[in-house]
Amino acid sequence: xxxxxLIIIKPRAxxxxxxxxxxxxxxxxxxxxxxxxxxxxxxxxxxxxxxxxKGKEFYEGLVKFMLTGPIFVSVWEGENIxxxxxKLMGKTNPLEAKEGTIRHKYAHNVRENCIHGSDSTQSADSxxxxxxxENELIME
Length: 140
Ligand code: CMP
Description:
binds adenosine-3',5'-cyclic-monophosphate
């Protein structure tokens, strides 16, 4: 099934100039970039995007981290891309991420884990419009 997913490259990876290396890893899997932009989140946006984690002990630290610098938000398309990208990203905690995954290569710790990807089609359906309007998502 052809799916779309939201991918965010997080502030520390941006500061460390890892953006193009990470995007290349995604492209080399055969996935296609539909839309992308550099964004500096407001606190309201960071809290809104991660509202499902509100109340968890890591929530405030996560929101603060996401405000430390610009991020790259993007929409990608491909065959079963949600699962495929979750495999390519590796486990949330980079200490558990397999060699060859994005988080194994470029993440520092569970909070500063360099990349976010939608975890289901339902998440993608709410995360994509959070950052992109309909007319930014047209491929042809
Ligand atoms: P992400 O895929 O962006 O989704 C939620 C984020 O919360 C996750 O990546 C991590 O950056 C962060 N996160 C999840 N679990 C923890 C944790 N135990 N401690 C700190 N941050 C976490």
